[in-house]
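Would you mind writing out a protein's amino acid sequence and the numbers that encode its backbone to help me picture the idea?
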Amino acid sequence: MPVWFNKGCKKCNGMPKKLSSACSCFLGTKTATVSKTQTDTVTITGSTQTNTVAVSSTSITTTTVCTSTVTPSSTTTPVTSSTTTPITSSASLTLTSAVPSSCGTTFTEYPVSSTTGTITCSSSIASPSANAHLRIEGNDSEGTIFEGCVVAGPRDITTPSGGTHMCDGTNNGANPSQGTTPIDQLDAAASLNSFSYDGTWSSAYDDFFITSIGASTQTSTQFWGLLVNDQYSPVGGCQMEVESGDRTLWAFDAFSKDHFLKVTPDYAVAEAGSGSVTVTTIDGEYGGVISGVSIAGQMSDNYGHVSILIPSEPGCYQFKATKSGSIRSNAFYLTVVDQFAESESVPSVSSIFLP
């Protein structure tokens, strides 16, 4: 067994299933059978589109090891630390492979040097469907509801308050032909991750107004906002069309916030205990750097920079940035490997990760 797969086991008692908690997962020494498949299938203009996240049933030696590291803050600014990202493997990836599990990127061979980059979604989906990035940020108590790539397309949308209506981008004459909309993405993600949402229907606008997602429900002063590629959508969620490569954000209480936080890069790969990696906190809507943002228990400087120490334990680490009066950031994924290898000495094995 490779050394980076054998790191022991500790329990995380009472670990909340939120992105505001902190957890890192490694492979250890307990035999278990993993079998999980999540599928979202919809019929779109005569063709079937499917979101599938699957782990083949395989008897493997694995133990989840979690270490909670929430850092208290003496200010009113929330402090957000890391949490686990599920490790998704293909049937061809076994414990005898030389390729470690990763987060935020896909390894086709063992990494040989530090790497940073931007998460992208596969663009091989035929129009009018799309595979685009979706992030849903709930209230302070709920945190991030969904974040990742999701395949969606035009479909009938049904809500408890609004009934059933087609949502395909042609609503209210917004576009001449069908396309994938942010509400189509929301519906696909809700089916995939088993959360609920609601919205009222406006005949005047031929569109839904989203009123709740998960446990985050609008009030008389707090409403759900919609941004595509970091800009407010000029039309409703059934009128705006998104394409593969776009980034959609549903944000609770969006209209009262000062910033929509963004962290760059999206991911990094580093060797265990090898110094630090620097991330930059910016305003997603306007592009300027933001100081005083909390991430990994630190505050960004006047250049928006934060240096995150590379953990000594291999694994997948996830961090989000927060600041009072702002929408929390996208996730920054840090994959830590035991040590880099010479490229010619390590065989290539396929693995997959669906961010």
